[in-house]
Design brief:
The chain is mostly helical. The chain is 65% helix and 3% strand.
Length: 197
C-alpha cells in the first residue's frame, strides 16, 4: 500500500500552491497599496495569466485524482479529524475552481473590455454570455465583491490547511505532511547485523 501521493499529484499540488500564493500577494498589492497605474496594469495582466494557469492545473489535478486514490490517513487519526480533512479538501477544490472562474467572469464583464493575453503570448477569450451584457457596470461591481470576499475566504482556508499540516508534522509527528513533500524519502530499511564469524 502506498503511503505517499504520486509525483504527478505532488507536482500539481505545489504548482497550484505557488500560483495561489502569487495571486494572493498580487491581489493584495493591486487593491491595498497605492501603486502606479502602469504597475497596476501589468500586475492585473499577470494576475489573469497565473489565474488561468491555476485553473488549468486544478482541472488536471482533479482528473488525476479521479484515477489515482490518495494515500490513506494514518490509522491513529480520529474519525472526526478524517471527516474534517476530507471536508477541507473538498472546500478547497470549490474555491480553487471558483476564484479563477469568478476572475474570468469579472474580466469578461469589465466595461474596459481589455483583452486577456496569457503571459503576453496566448490570446484567451472572454466568457461569451457575460461579454455581451448590456449593463456591465452592475455586473462588474457584483463580481468584484464576490471575487474579493472569495479571496479573503480562501486566505483563511489556506491558513487553516497549512496550520493543520504543520500540527501533524511538529506536534502529532505523523506522516500526513511527508506524504506531499516532493523531496522526502523514506528512511532506508535497517538490515539485521550479521553474527561475527
Amino acid at each position: 500500500m502506498t503511503t505517499r501521493y504520486t509525483m504527478v499529484a505532488i507536482l500539481l499540488h505545489w504548482v497550484i500552491a505557488l500560483g495561489i500564493l502569487c495571486l494572493i500577494v498580487m491581489g493584495l498589492v493591486m487593491t491595498q497599496l497605492h501603486i502606479s497605474q502602469m504597475l497596476q496594469f501589468r500586475l492585473y495582466q499577470l494576475h489573469k495569466s497565473i489565474g488561468i494557469t491555476v485553473l488549468l492545473a486544478v482541472v488536471l489535478r482533479l482528473l488525476w485524482r479521479l484515477g489515482h486514490a490518495p494515500p490513506p490517513m494514518p490509522a491513529s487519526l480520529p474519525q472526526l479529524e478524517r471527516h474534517a480533512a476530507e471536508g477541507m479538501h473538498k472546500l478547497l477544490y470549490v474555491f480553487m475552481f471558483a476564484m479563477p472562474l469568478t476572475g474570468w467572469a469579472l474580466v469578461s464583464v469589465s466595461p474596459f473590455n481589455i483583452p486577456t493575453v496569457l503571459y503576453g503570448l496566448i490570446p484567451w477569450p472572454h466568457l461569451p454570455v457575460l461579454s455581451t451584457l448590456h449593463d456591465k457596470v452592475a455586473a462588474d461591481a457584483l463580481l468584484s465583491k464576490i471575487h474579493a470576499y472569495g479571496g479573503w475566504t480562501l486566505i483563511a482556508l489556506l491558513a487553516v490547511h497549512a496550520g493543520a499540516a504543520l500540527r501533524h508534522h511538529f506536534i502529532l509527528r505523523d506522516t500526513v505532511l511527508l506524504r506531499m513533500l516532493p523531496l522526502h524519502r523514506r528512511p532506508a530499511a535497517v538490515l539485521p547485523q550479521q553474527e561475527p564469524s
